[in-house]
Input
Amino acid sequence: MSNSFNRPVVLIVMDGVGVSKDSKVNAVRDAHLETLDNLWQHYPSLLLNASGHYVGNPDGEEGNSEVGHNALGTGQIVPQGPLRVQRAFDDGSIFATDTWHKTIAYTKEHQSTLHFIGILSDGNVHSHINHLFAMMKQAQSEGITRIRVHAALDGRDVSPQSAEKYIKMFDDFVASLGNPDYKIADAGGRMITWCDRYESDWGVVKNGWDIAVRGQGREFPDAITAIETLRAEDPGVGDQYLPQFIVSGTDGTIKKGDAVVFFNFRADRAIMTSVAFTYYDFPYFDRGDFNPDDIFYAGLTEYNSDTHVPALIFVKPLTIDHTISDLLAEHRISEYAISETVKYGHITYYFDGNHHLDQSDIRTYVEIPSDSDSESFVDRPWMKSADIADKLVEAIKSEKYQFLRVNFPNGDMVGHFAELEPTIVAMEAVDIALKRILEAVDEVGGMAIVTADHGNAEELADSDGKPKTSHSSNLVPCIFYDRSSTAGLYALKQGDFGLANVASTVAFLLGLDPLPEWQPSLVQVS
Output
């Protein structure tokens, strides 16, 4: 390559920070963002697509942190979980798999119950209720007479108080099958029941375990009554934090000889529950007399590609080769990645194409522990931004690394509460961190790309003004901060770009040829 840049490149991902002029409730617009506003006004910038087919999702579907970081780190647009899994249902291939046949055979052999665990909604970020329905219908056609569902209520990727809608959809679907013995046995909000991630709080998995395996929890005659009662007791609570409950009379506990299927297709909030059901050596909470050999357990896909958890899956996992980290390793270029726990996996595992890479003499990955209680994010919206900035500034000034990347989770994790004031504080905390990082970048003669993985904080209400906890499909910023001596050697291209164009851009700015699999660079030689 003709350019010969010799300075560090820092990629700053502001998680969940999109751009919107029309949003009624917009924390990005309303926050005092001195640093970010200055970047917009004085430095070259583009808007990037971060949703739909630009990140491998169906057209019109919002982006998320997983697909966003896949695109950023691999430079490729690859059909993602929702598309791949949907294709398996559409063509029926999922029901021709060995794992499906084993699921049905085991349940019949033991004359037992087939259980499903997962997020009960059509959010299509972690799961889709239609996938559950398809498996229930197929199970009925193959002679399964008893099904119990252990529902993680959403309210995060869908409207914050919409659980009744999905309970009714379930009841209507069962009625359409002729009212077989298929029931919701228990449920609870996804953030406190089953769906923790990155081992932040094993108590979340234990809450699910207590109601589904031990049969211990508050009982109600039906799920709708439970939700209405719990809402009356705490009117502001969103579905994602609804206390767990049991539907009395369903006899829905998971027993010896039963089959269990986790129907989430996204990995991060499914791994820990899968570990609880499959590991023999399990130190995280008391499982009672449970033994993994006592049940059959399968997942919709593989949730950990290193440990191959679970062993039995319906759809083969996605891994993406030819990543930025691959290119850097080939050229012995040192890299540094950092975030706090809730997004550490995104700036490392997902950025690296769903590969767990080992630390090495040229690769340093740093995790700052997040607060263990996710509900605290709305009360402490600054999260760990200062701690992350401390470590990143130190790494930049060390001049040991040529490519550094960071994820600030605040805009997304606080934005999911759809509360304006905390999200404003979250954005301002990131802005303060940005200022410190850019000062360090200047000190070493480097440059920085400031971008995001998807929108959220800029759209906290829907078109009717109701709280919106899910992601947006808005474009995201991509700002080039460069006060180095080489700033004039390149210029931005014009075009229709997405997150996958960033990898080639990073390669260009490091003086490397991009990999042939990648989308084109956002910049070119002046």
